[in-house]
Amino acid sequence: MSRPFAHRFVLCFLAISLGAAALYWLTRRVPPSAAPAGRSAATPAANTPIGAAGKPVGTVRSTAALRLDPGTNELPDHRTAKEQKDAVVKHWGNFIEGEKARLGAATFDPVARRWLARPRVRQLLEEWKALEQAWPERSEEQRAAQLPQIEAMWREGMAELAAELTVAGHPTELPPPK
Fold it and tell me: pLDDT by residue (tens digit) across 18-45?
């Protein structure tokens, strides 16, 4: 009777020991300066491919000094022309709302009336109405071709608003283009 108990005890002890050793091996931390025998920490592995710059290809690069330049980091826009147009309208609508919130309705409303009375703003509004009426009839390519014109129209109109606000004693800067 004692013999099967001893076998079970030894087998359980070995299984627990093996599990503890495996757990230790999986969770141990090796300092980066510790290199395997026969190779220093500065020497890359013999089978690591070397790139054109002379650095090992598989090395980890740091992003600590990485700075993105919005002018060169342009990604293709995968939105439809309608979504892009709506984004432009929303962007400039938020600008108008922000200026109204900053100045208050009592100050902003008379300035907005003078802005809307400007001849160039009236002309831009007429162009916008014509563009909006013709928009459903155009193909997706024609719509996409009009997006720069739409952005330019809104930017010009908002520049007129900023000029009117500046004349009224409230200097305003336009947000950077998206």
Answer: 888 888 888 877 665 655 555 555 555 5
Q: Smallest Cα–Cα separation from 177: which of 83, 88, 68?
A: 88
Give, in degrees to the nearest 5, the angle at Cα 159 between 72 and 106: 130
Q: Which residues pair with 50 in a beta bridge?
A: 56
Identify which has the larger pLDDT, 4 or 146: 146
DSSP code per residue over 117-172: HSHHHHHHHHHHHHHHHHGGGS-HHHHHHHHHHHHHHHHHHHHHHHHHHHHTT---
The Cα diameter of the chain in Å comes to: 107
C-beta of residue 170 within 8 angstroms of C-beta of residue 115? no
* Residue 111, token pair as written in the block: 């300035």
> pTM value?
0.54
pLDDT of 81 > 90? The answer is no
